[in-house]
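Subject: mismatched residue count in predicted assembly?

I count 407 residues in my input, but I want to confirm that the predicted structure covers every chain. Input:
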Amino acid sequence: MKPDFDPVTLAVPFFVLAVVLEIILGRFGKAKAAYEPKDAATSLLMGFGSTIAGLFTAGLIFTTSLWVYQHRLFDIPMTAIWAWVLIFFLEDLTYYWFHRLAHERRFWWASHVNHHSSQHYNLTTALRQTWTGGVAGTWLLWLPLSFIGFPPAMVAIQKGFSLVYQFWIHTEVIKRMPRWFEAVFNTPSHHRVHHARNARYLDANYAGVLIIWDRMFGTFTPETDEEPPRYGLVRNLGGFNLFHVAFHEWIGIGKDLLKARSLREVTGYLFGPPGWSPDGSRDTSATLKAKWRARTGQDG
Amino acid sequence: MNKALLVELLGSAGAVAALVAIAWWARIPRPTPPLDEATARSLLADDFPDIHPDQIWIADEGRGAVARAGDRALVLFRLGDGYVARLVAWRDDYVGAAPWPPKGVRA
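Triage response: the counts match. Full output below for your records.
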């Protein structure tokens, strides 16, 4: 159920060559790149599994998008340049809110957490993709684009471009891009912050291609040399088991729901921020950041 | 399953195997020398900045550590070229335990 022109499939050889190049630069000391074979294997196999998992929901997503498009408000031609410019901005804005939701609400975090579970930050981390995104239903957020009148194939292609863009920013090889580029686009530096588990960096830099959304909506945090990012989860996983990586947060939700004693608790465990608990005994990103601010006196 | 998809999946599987082999060949993990007390304290402080342990014991020939803070244990164990930290209830048999980490701590 992919469009005939699929940027992600076409980019796979580039992904492979870029990973090889990053490893070789690291091997010969020409750039900062660390690889742990088990970690890299986990990331790559999560990516492979994500492709297979996607096959199970592709039909539903395609059919739903087509149905919505049949009830569209406008006819937007796929051949018009203005339409591509417009969808670039609208798709990227959609991605920002999808990504923010995927971090700030536990139900969607459960499907996204695996992408953040590596303690490394290299190009294989980009490929550590979800197996449960289709089930979590985040694809629904893109349906308004088809309702406006963008053909589903156009939406899928633009999503593909965005994913391909986001591959190269998962690296420590590039320290900073030119200042004008850092101001407008998502870059390795901005995205390192996004993958960091340091309290000061939590829940920041949700951008896909354009970092302007984070600047507009108050979620931008710059990378500082005084505190290098430490990668992974606030509570890192204790192994490399693929199924644990893919499903651990879903299992955590299930266990919490079994203990829930009221509708408020059910709602909180499902849709509260990750770490929410009825008595506040667990940490959320917000409490961790508040403690960090109290400890350091810094504002972040 | 159509042929193009099969080729794509087989190609991806081959690429995964090749990339893992190259990563293994390159041998560029982060350096992880055996832990000493200062390093263990620093790593635990990253995860538990508000807990200040009284005592710390190096475990598993420098691949782990356990610290005591009242009735709580702060446990460190190696995973690949990194460390994972856990906060659990203190048990006296954590000191000198083998294998490391003690049973039930990793999850």
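The first helix of chain A runs from residue 7 to 27. Marking this ticket as 'not a bug'.
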